[in-house]
Batch of 2 targets.
Target 1
Amino acid sequence: MSKKSFPFAERIFFCYFEKQKVVMTDFQVTILGNGSAVPTAYQNLSAQLVQYGHRRFLVDCGEGTQMQMIKYQVSRKNLSHIFISHLHGDHYFGLVGLVSTMHLFGREQPLHIYGPEPLEEIIQRQMDASDTRLKFPLVFHVLQKAGKIYSDNNLEISCFPLNHRIATFGFVFREKERERNLQKDFVRRYSPGVEQMHRIKQGADFLLPDGDVLRNEDITLDPPLSRSYAYCSDTLFDPDIVPFVRSVDLLYHEATFDDAMADIAAEKYHATARQAAQIAKAASVGELLLGHFSARFSDTAHLLEEARGVFKNTRKSGEGMTYKLSTR
Amino acid sequence: MSKKSFPFAERIFFCYFEKQKVVMTDFQVTILGNGSAVPTAYQNLSAQLVQYGHRRFLVDCGEGTQMQMIKYQVSRKNLSHIFISHLHGDHYFGLVGLVSTMHLFGREQPLHIYGPEPLEEIIQRQMDASDTRLKFPLVFHVLQKAGKIYSDNNLEISCFPLNHRIATFGFVFREKERERNLQKDFVRRYSPGVEQMHRIKQGADFLLPDGDVLRNEDITLDPPLSRSYAYCSDTLFDPDIVPFVRSVDLLYHEATFDDAMADIAAEKYHATARQAAQIAKAASVGELLLGHFSARFSDTAHLLEEARGVFKNTRKSGEGMTYKLSTR
């Protein structure tokens, strides 16, 4: 049995079909609120929806998040995991209302909530006060230290500590390395069995009946690069964050204040837009998305300018906007 | 010293000036939310602002109330008393956010909160979790039974039990009986002293230097009748409510369901629009204002029709609408 390449004609044939499109799973972030501390007429409190395929994850849940979900037509379906960065009210006061609404709409599937203590006690106390026995399991996961907190076939979610006045965590959503893609024309021509297909996706070659071998690289396509998203809010400017968010494709980082308020930012354990850009640059991220803007700025254009002076590939997050994750 | 009436000419003179306008203190209710249970695209959760002169009182505070206050330009200034009817989330989940916002804006004057237990514990637990030491005194008043809960020079507020699944209270805002109004022309002509004016306002006559007496009814005007407002949400249809709201000028009563859902209303300890009207009629109120509409009704016109079949002087409350209290 000799391991050899495709005959020349067949190589040409497959090369042509290397243009076969590899379908990327939708991986995107929708901003439901990007204001800080207090709501204003023009911005709502922290909350965002991360979608990976049909799965929905909520990151933070400030007061009014369920109203924002209605406004931006975000379904509660397939939303089974909520991540709360910390227990300042602008990041979680909307959680108990959202949980109540899920209950009133007859939810049955479990809801997993990740956050620092005593989040469970706070929610449970309010359920008890209204004599509510939830119709679905509420599963609390206490965040205490950096590490993996969620994993499925395609996605892994980790948390890491931020530097704020109280226990606060950032989150990284990282697409798992995916299997190689079979060339459709190879499949059509040789009809490999399920087991064989599985092995080829893992990198195996294919044995022809005549003993010849089709090399894996000739019958598969590279999977797309894994994509990753990181959320950092709220935090002091802190280079210790860099290793946790290194090379992510999209980094949402708080930019509560501008250059002129750097002292106040430090005092309040918040960051400026420029500092967010310094983290983005040091971590070599693909793109930086600014958010958690102070209520004092009705116009945040200067925050973008200040950040772009350090890291060009920066955008301001916009309420109701969706940002698709792409590889570089 | 003979007690006699004004000479004829003077009586004519004062009669003319009886047209003097008696200024009524503004007394009004602004609906910030009149939906029940869950927010929808078209209605927000229970909250309303009662204003008497410069004083503002908030009745219930569902999630998003502070956003509704921004939307309808309701200032937090002079808002020092909040009344929470009961601890179902749609009536108070916005309270902790509003308290936080007051703190962040540097409030210093005390805030009085009235509600059933364990409201204080719930709010305090959330303050502790965020390591927040409020800059202003938060004074909790536990509602346990019917009675007067607030009184100032002009207004008295009472609570009374409603019939709901958990401890729930209605509220009555009742203007105090006011002093008689001095006729301006009498004051101009006879320049009574401060003490004399005070006695005349209480009903005393006025002694002229020649020993004649001006009768109180000839030198004063009747004060306007006292106005009153009652809030009943949430409650089962319950005639026991009637004595507490008898003869109020305006009654806000929940009308969660329609006739077709009377069984469900009873099961859930709620009332139908028709039942609200039955209470209004039995209590001989001036006007009925329907609210706390089920999220299932995008159009509530039929609720108004059903209520008007029993009590004609009925209106549907509208979000952002202000209803002025008037005497009958």
Target 2
Amino acid sequence: MSAGLPPQSPESYVQRRRELGARVSGPALLFSGLPRPQNYPANVYPFRPSSHFLYLTGCWIENAAVLVDGQRDVLFMPPEDPDDVVWHGPSPGWADIQRATGVSEIRDIAELDAAIDAAATATLPAVDATTRFAQGRMLDRAWAEPGVTVELDERDASLADAIIALRTIHDDAALTMMRVAAEATVEAHRAGMAATRPGLRESDVRAAMERPLLARDMVTAYPSIVTVHGEILHSRGYDNPIAAGDLLLADVGASNRGWAGDVTRTWPVSGRFSPTQRTLYELVLAAQLAAIEAVAPGARYRDLHLAAARVIARGLVDEGILRGEVDGLVERGAHALFFVHGLGHLIGLDVHDMEDLGDRAGYAPGRQRSTQFGLSFLRLDRDLQPGMAVTIEPGFYQIPALLAPGSAQTKAFDDDGSLDRDALAKFADVRGIRIEDDVLVTAEGPEVLTAALEKQPDDIEALVGSR
Amino acid sequence: MSAGLPPQSPESYVQRRRELGARVSGPALLFSGLPRPQNYPANVYPFRPSSHFLYLTGCWIENAAVLVDGQRDVLFMPPEDPDDVVWHGPSPGWADIQRATGVSEIRDIAELDAAIDAAATATLPAVDATTRFAQGRMLDRAWAEPGVTVELDERDASLADAIIALRTIHDDAALTMMRVAAEATVEAHRAGMAATRPGLRESDVRAAMERPLLARDMVTAYPSIVTVHGEILHSRGYDNPIAAGDLLLADVGASNRGWAGDVTRTWPVSGRFSPTQRTLYELVLAAQLAAIEAVAPGARYRDLHLAAARVIARGLVDEGILRGEVDGLVERGAHALFFVHGLGHLIGLDVHDMEDLGDRAGYAPGRQRSTQFGLSFLRLDRDLQPGMAVTIEPGFYQIPALLAPGSAQTKAFDDDGSLDRDALAKFADVRGIRIEDDVLVTAEGPEVLTAALEKQPDDIEALVGSR
């Protein structure tokens, strides 16, 4: 199997490691991790190495670690096991891996403990618990103890910052991978639209969408959301029937050797938006286009979020659902009754890129999450720079628990008459709409990586049920 | 979402818990486990509760535990979180869950620690490390320490034995679930055969096979093997092109709410077996049918394995590949140069049922694995009883590393002339064949749960490329 070898030329990985080596003062050690068992140790979920390790090596290798020390680097990995050849077939030898990754040296992972100075070596905690505890013990970290919350000490935090600085600005090799992820994601969505017809179940559409990803030997970058209950933001079920009056929301993205696509489209199961559905669909689309338009170097992502929020609020005022002055409504968070979540997030090797490092990746130094409902869910507040990739994904939802009269979020707006429930009632056939694309920041402005995928309502209607 | 509720009536779960309560002397506590993160905490693999928990409750609930104490039982689980309703939609309330599972009581998981007597309570270690360490600390188990090998103490071992006694003999509710898993598995294989044509890649066939499982809102019970290199027994890649002369081996099974199907078929990419392929295919099929025929209460599974081995050895002697007397060849393990692995394993909620408990489940008390190459891979050595379900899956493989002249396994057979490499060379177009079905032991003999799926070579040929 060639699965262990990196998909791109060694130069890109060497370059990333050299830049990391130049940015951190001592050695840095990043682990690939171990497969996660489903129900017994040998029955594992599809293995995915840690994104930091993948970024620096491109290698799909279990139980490995890369040590970057200035301009020198060592890949530690398990030696070839003759029994393994019988069961798993031939795999690339160390010489092949060294050539393909450009590392200075490959050594047996069993030698790692003796090869490092725990106090001097910076690391980032692996996401799988087994690796994290073993790693933490090897490196004397407090988070080696089960139950202890992971907090980065100063040395590890500075490694995190160096990695964030690198991974936030995508190099050409990264963009090549992301463009293919975007292309596959577009194909999946078109297949989903084409396969949609009343009387099927959500699972049928999901299956139609994931099949082309499997056919490309890809997996999904995150668990797909394919539902006629788009208002359930983190819906994980696929067992609802899909009926002629429903909107179907599909949030599905491909993982291209780890690099993520992340796209949402919402389409009418019948192939025709109702007038009310079309009105709110066009409103969400206008908000998305306004935010994309505002993508430019130096733009603050939070301002894009607020710009989209203002478009939504303005539209809701126009439809009589909200009453009042737009800026004031947005300031008070009235839009967040419907556009509940943040505008988007960084995207790269992780669909929420580097979310393992928390808001350290998404929020610029000195910026913190708001405590206001809605804005509190914003995952990104940085000034955009060329090479950053972000999602832009506004939405409109009617979440019963949130909109229930007397709920903590609606009370103030009911009390002062900002919310017109009679006007809202006319839009009962709209439970959830989201429109999401992946956008690269360039010096010239936005480049929509997933631009090939239809999103104008007429174009969507033409695709639905076409197969 | 109704995903949390059990798929079957409460009586079956109550009955299982009552039987467990009657078999263990003190309280027994079984955990559902936690989702396993892929690359950051919020991006998790599809959650699967521990099979022991599923068996006793049918509930798809994270971070829960069921306490069975004689005829009393308590389900501990997280309380409903109002924020959760906003993000995940309405979920069944405690009253619904209590009704659907028939438990005596539901309590907050936060109360579990105080509710149990660690020394008196038997448990089985969860498969996910995070749960296992938390559980082990709560119950003062040695395996709460990272790096410590899990060994069951006497009290936990007796719980394991009680669970094994129950889960080994499938009740009607279990069989209902397994029949649906079998039906879905059959559909997947037919779709794979129909979609096969030269020039595609393995991933295309895999996608065609998994699509109907996704459409049924099912997942695979284990990572699919779909390859033209059937000789790579644990092949995990899908990127080979499939060509007209190749045999394609597909080992794919559905998981029906946790209950597993496990089927292998091997078919010619062109739709026509070559004469040499047909000869060895028919040999493997004869071995499989002989082993299935021998399924009966009281039969020792190891004897079925050896019966299949004798059919294979006899056929290889007939083709001139092996030379000598069949019983002697099998005794020396000559067949294992080609039929490398064991005949099969228990199947139920796990595809290798209860393999989390090691050979304690697969091997009857007093029986141990052989050290002979081939027999050492046999996962099951029990006397069959009505209600047991097993796979029957002989195969023929030419594994280059194993058959290399001078390899540890072949040397003796080369030296004494038992292996005729010239005769073998005529079968170069056969790299790997396996034929596998799921078989229920009944008082009357074998009932093949996956019998609907074609396996006669003419029937296979008629299906391949039919779509």
